[in-house]
Fold these 2 entries.
Entry 1:
Amino acid sequence: MSASPNAAQIAYWNGPIGQAWAKHQEKRDRDHAGITAPLMEWAAAKPNEAVLDIGCGAGTTTLMLAARVGPNGKAVGIDLSGPMLELARKRAEAARSNAQFVQADAAEYGFEKQVFDLGFSQLGVMFFADPVAAFVNIRRTLKKRARIAFACWRSPAEHLWASIPESTARPFLPAAPPADPNAPGRFSLRLPDRIKQVLGGAGFCAIEIEKLDARTFAGATPEEAASSVIDSGPLQRNLANADEATRQRVREAVTERLSAEVGPDGIFLTSAAWLVRALT
Ligand SMILES: C[S@@+](CC[C@H](N)C(=O)[O-])C[C@H]1O[C@@H](n2cnc3c(N)ncnc32)[C@H](O)[C@@H]1O
């Protein structure tokens, strides 16, 4: 897979981040629960449908979709990440689920044509080097008048889960060169116009976009919340190249900043997402 345009993402999701996501799968699922429930309703998978879960990670939503479509339906998860899919397969076996998993790049995979009623994704479609080409490839495996339904993040300014730790850490880290905001990454689909341009360019129609603010549990204490927000995202990658003293200073600063967010039930941060739906 290394000559792929998505090679950087393949390395990223098969490296320490992919391993950390697999290791902390239950925590990640709790973090995303405020997105998962409304997204499931938004996608509305029905009994007997065939569903493709794009960027399925450790398979939580694929297992849920498999339960929704039932024994005569089909739920297939596709993901780049070996560590997460290994866990997904174990979970499917333990749950006696008929969910299936494929390790491949959804942007390039040679899918069978027109087999799925629903393309679904929880936060797995923002990482394509060429998003229009990727959605064209995905659209080919959806039936005529099938739907795609996914969640993606809104802008970092609204998504406090990401922006609080990253802005707090910034003074301690070397200045990063200005990044292309549309480059593959969490926020590449942060603008509704871009979502429409990408999906429309790939041939989808009847595009609907709705705001979703989820209150996401970060931790019971500032220390726990700091570990959670640092270890689950790009900050971990930035800190991997920092010396121990810098890592410690960042952790202390993020912990202190998050202590301002402690409420009666612990620390909750806003996760700001779009729910998106379109037809083939
Ligand atoms: C933010 S995680 C979300 C995982 C899972 N859907 C969840 O909600 O826990 C993004 C996932 O998308 C996957 N991914 C990124 N680019 C992909 C691609 N081109 N094809 C397949 N999966 C991809 C990653 O490996 C990762 O598992």
Entry 2:
Amino acid sequence: MSDAPRLAAPSETAPLLAVAGLHHWFGGLHVIDGVSFSCRAGAIKAIIGPNGAGKSTLFNLVAGSFPPVSGRVSFAGREVTGLPSHRIASLGVSRTFQSSRLFPGMSVLENVMAGRYARGRSGFLSGMLRLPAARRDERDARRRALETLEAFGLAELAGADARSLPFGRQRIVEIARALAAEPRLLLLDEPACGLNIRETERLGSLIQDIRSRGVTVLIVEHDMSLVMGISDEVVVLDRGSLVAEGTTSEVQADPRVVAIYLGDA
Ligand SMILES: Nc1ncnc2c1ncn2[C@@H]1O[C@H](COP(=O)(O)OP(=O)(O)OP(=O)(O)O)[C@@H](O)[C@H]1O
Ligand SMILES: [Mg+2]
């Protein structure tokens, strides 16, 4: 073997997620206005900004809920712009939503198992016919969901009706459901919304733990103590435009960010 330094493979240096020149309109409203940024593998990156800044829309564009009017999204070195959400999910992007979306009438375990199906290999037909591949997928989903619940300290609630849990627990179940698909990138849209201070602190530790397991985290959040406590980098959006990007101390010291948060922009 040669002692010469090994050139890094492109996948080791390229960001896990990159968005470039993204634009989106709703009706006449320019909601995302030329946004470009990237997120390296292994980071916790936050997207902050006032209500209506376009944060959730940006998540929807990354996750493939709808295609951007223009611009590009690439994930793990391949362009995913315009791919439907289930394709992007199968490539390794999972998300939670700003408002709770647990399935009614299903237990915690079933909700988390449902998150696994983005990864299942068997198709709809084999599921209907209970073919061996579908049964194997279901066994995998159950095992993996139980492991995730265990790791989150929720194992004893596996059989409970998910929607009957206290709100803070429901939010954690939603994160567990997103992780059951074993994503490389997890998008969290306001996970601390409605949580009390202690729950928010626990959520911060949980997100750091998720990152330490090798999952990159992109988080939209209004709770600044959480954002500043756990993020490696922060993107600031205002009225659809990226106004600042940097470390937590860089963005906190940025006069444009201060102006936005003091209502002075
Ligand atoms: N489906 C839609 N149709 C029309 N307008 C929309 C739609 N979704 C969002 N908008 C508008 O786009 C703008 C950005 O909304 P978005 O939900 O992305 O903001 P946000 O930064 O996530 O805000 P918040 O912090 O309140 O969640 C807002 O003016 C919103 O009213
Ligand atoms: Mg939002």
